[in-house]
Amino acid sequence: MSRLALSVLLACLGGTAAAADSAPASKPVTPDKLLGGTSDTAQWLMYGGDYNNWRFSPLKDIDRSNAGKMQAVWMFQTGIPGQLEASPVVADGVMFLSAAYNNLWALDAATGKALWKYSHQLPGDIMICCGPANRGVAIAGNAVFMGTLDAHLVALDRKTGAVLWNIEMAKHSDGYSATSAPLIIDNLVIMGIAGGEYGARGFIDAYDVATGKLVWRRYTVPVAGEKGVETWEGDSWKTGGGPAWGTGVYDPASKTLFWATGNPSPDWNGDTREGDNLYTNSALALDAATGEMKWHFQYTPHDVWDYDATTGLFLLDVEKDGKKIKSLVQPNRNGFLYALDAATGKFLHGYKYVDQLNWAKGLDANGRPEVDPRYEPKAGGNPEYICPGNVGGQNGSYTAAYSPQTHLVYVPVVESCGKMEKQAAVFVNGQPFWGGGPGMMQAEEGLAYGHFSAYDPSTGERKWTWKDPYPMAGGTLSTAGGVVFTGSQTGHVMAFDDSNGKLLWKFQTGSAVRGQPITWKAGGRQFVAFGSGGGGIAVQIVGQPPLDTPGSTLVVFALPE
Fold it and tell me: Residue 554's domain is classified under what CATH number?
């Protein structure tokens, strides 16, 4: 088939692929390969590196002694405006990189040369609350999978970019979109939906990898007759929100999928939805094969602060009363770092990880926040700053990392407060259903800042911190070389000593860093890749990035040869 004929065919299927040179020979990405995570250091096969979402690599060629010598070896300019938030994946010498507006490239991972490009054809009436970002793709077999801004899930041939299948998850005209990276478990591709800001009922879907057939759907808000609906006043569940726009984690031993959910709707006005509003702002433990719920834990009942719980989850061991317990750990957007028993959902402990927190006086023995009513949004704006602001201490668009060597969680933190405002809310299908807004932000008075800090998930102790004049909104990577990486809104990518926070190296990329760094080894050389390209409402609320240039770039580093 000619390239022209191929392009016409792909356009009919809902997207276009432009071929460059053929991709290197590839082998199917099997379930066993995915179970191996980053143990095969030539690959980075999924969003978080492995099913635990540690964002940790056993590579140690780059270490504390030589990280300062790192140099840029290639870069790829997407030419696409907007955030570059994605975590690339690497398999068999090919990198798959997605960018804003659902553009996807296959790149030679050694040189950055484009092998093919796919551009999803988006309708002119897409409705997205928080920027056109795409956070990454998943791979399985010989296919690569991407969610789209018009709420589709697309499967492409890894070799050519040809569309294998393209299914509609939900109607984008109802406010739905898909921005997160899918997760592959056996023969299923798992995908969460966005749209909570439009009152759209959230869900998590599982599709057959080969055919795109829906296998199961887990809604995040119950309907009449279902358990949990009693936590919604009247029929407010009908417009309850509860998006699921993060990426989950998976425990192969128990066959349990863990997924986090977002805010109820309307966001800032809870007057018409009295109650806890299950299962919003929660961690859900699901049977991976069926979607059946095993347990849930709600971090922020009756959320009126827009504290989505969609920040990164980790599966790791924490110590409690002298025992090691497999736990679900999360630096939640509400400012607390939580540890839950992964088998039961029982609250183990929670600690404040932000400097500024006043909306709750603390957490009770069951992990329920002790809310201070003075810091609930008021009509006309709260008289005092609410901390953290609606962006939270963390946000789902950038990630923390964990090192099994130091047993520390490394968190890029936003420090910002806001005078959130409650307003009347009228639901109109497909229109924003906010019931207020973030109000005046502390950033307007120059008081917002950020820090990159290391925490012990068993005690909550902050082991070290590095302060930045701007909120930290770049992803994180930890390595066995004792080096942890992140990026800043001043455009710098940085390497730190993971034991004490000493800055080892930095490089100016030219644009604010929002992407997730990854690392892999090829030809005897360790590479580290960072996405650079800022913007987006989440950062603009707390202060416009000092470097926000058109387009976005992936920059790849290594030690000198």
Answer: 2.140.10.10
The stretches of 275-371 forming alpha helices (DSSP H) are: none
SS3 category, 516: coil
DSSP per position, 476-507: EEEETTSEEEEE-TTSEEEEEETTT--EEEEE
Cβ-proximal residues to 92 (8 Å cutoff; 6+ apart), any chain:
24, 25, 26, 27, 43
Give the separation between CA 426 and CA 432, rounded to whole angstroms: 9
In a domain, 206, yes or no: yes
SS3 assignment, position 414: strand
Helix, strand, coil in percent for the chain, rounding step 5 = 10, 40, 50
Separation of alpha carbons 116 and 97, rounded Å: 11
Q: Look at residue 515 and tell me if it is in a domain.
A: yes
Q: 430 Cβ partners below 8 Å, 6+ apart?
A: 127, 173, 174, 175, 198
The range of the structural domain enclosing residue 143 comes to: 3-111+125-437+449-558
**Contact by Cβ (8 Å): 506, 46:** no
- Separation CA 46–CA 117 (nearest Å): 20
- 3-class state of residue 437 by DSSP: strand
Helices (H) and strands (E) in the chain, counts: 3, 39
The one-character DSSP state at 425 is -
The residues carrying an active-site annotation are: 306
Asked if residue 442 belongs to a domain, the reply is: no
Question: What pTM did the predictor assign?
Answer: 0.94
Which tens digit of pLDDT belongs to each residue from 291-341? 999 999 999 999 999 999 999 999 999 999 999 999 999 999 999 999 999
The answer to the question of residue 388 being in a domain is yes
What are 194-204's pLDDT values in tens digits? 999 999 999 99
The count of structural domains within the chain is 1
Distance CA 277, CA 270 (A): 10
CA-CA distance, 108 to 45, in Å (whole number)? 15
